[in-house]
Amino acid sequence: MQAAEGVELKVRLSGSDGPDQTIGFFRGSNSASIRKSIATALEIPSGVGLVARDVNGNVVALSDRLPSGLVLSIEAVDQIPASSTAGNDDGGGGFGSSLNTLAEALVASVRGSTAARTSRARTARSAAFRGQVRRWR
Q1: Co-location of 16 and 71 in the same domain
Q2: Which residues partner with 49 through β-bridges?
Q3: Which of 17, 91, 110, 126 gets the most CB atoms within 10 Å of its CB?
């Protein structure tokens, strides 16, 4: 059995003179748990949005595939502006969050359409079964 590979990131609150904090996680961790670890290390209250930037100021999506040793500057934001998409000129601030929102909407849509198809199929099967029962009587 192979040991899970660990990742360590250095994070600092943007605009703060405080020391870097080190967080660690293992490959396979989800982005929500990584985000929560960062918020805990930097004492950011729950419910506050985070935007991670690398040393060049580029927005970085939080995932388990980040390289160990990466230094991130974390901005605490009340909410990601709706205009923060891949097409803007400020480096795509909030792009990762926009992708997460899009993915959640797509999953909800698929679940909804799957539920509707399942419901229609049950109704059709029930009608077919009722018809079969009538024929047996």
Answers
A1: yes
A2: 77
A3: 91
Q: What is the CATH number of the domain that holds 68?
A: 3.10.20.90
In a domain, 86, yes or no: no
Q: Which range marks the domain in which residue 67 is found?
A: 1-79
Strands (E), 20-110: 21-26, 49-53, 59-60, 71-77
Predicted structure pTM score: 0.56
The Cα–Cα gap between 11 and 22 comes to: 6
Residues 6+ apart with CB under 8 A from 23: 8, 9, 11, 34, 37, 38, 41
Please list the rounded mean pLDDT of every run of 10 residues in the chain (137 residues). Answer: 79 90 94 94 91 94 93 85 42 50 61 59 59 53
Residue 102 in domain = yes
In DSSP terms, which residues pair with 33 in a beta bridge?
none
